[in-house]
């Protein structure tokens, strides 16, 4: 299935009139660490309290990939099947490419547990196409299908696409502070 992502952004003029600030097709990003997958960095806000106002709305802040406390990210991830062949590139090249294309993405992943990661964020996700399994650190899993909404609260997890086609997930990430204990 072809996937055609588009973003429409609204804003306000100095006199308070609502306007369309941007309307554009989104190009996917791919990284060797996730062979065959596509990432769409739609929008992001800086850390702290987002602001809106008459012509004062800031531009997008899409990176680092995971926002700091109070920051947000709006992304689409099209997960390729797990059976997609891995890259032949060396680990140093894979890490450097991911950091160049998607700054901040690779640092949360565990080198000894492929796909497993923990973020300091609350992630709201919805499956819009395909299927995927959400795995937690104790091996517990849930099957995620279109219409399934996931609220990920800073837990260690991994996404496993055991199907034979892409799974499209839409996420809003909200940066949070991790409380120890």
From TrEMBL:
Residues 116-172 form the Cupin type-2 domain. InterPro entries: Cupin_2 (IPR013096), OryJ/VirC-like (IPR047142), RmlC-like_jellyroll (IPR014710), RmlC_Cupin_sf (IPR011051). This is Cupin domain-containing protein. It comes from Pseudonocardia oceani. The lineage of its organism: Bacteria, Bacillati, Actinomycetota, Actinomycetes, Pseudonocardiales.
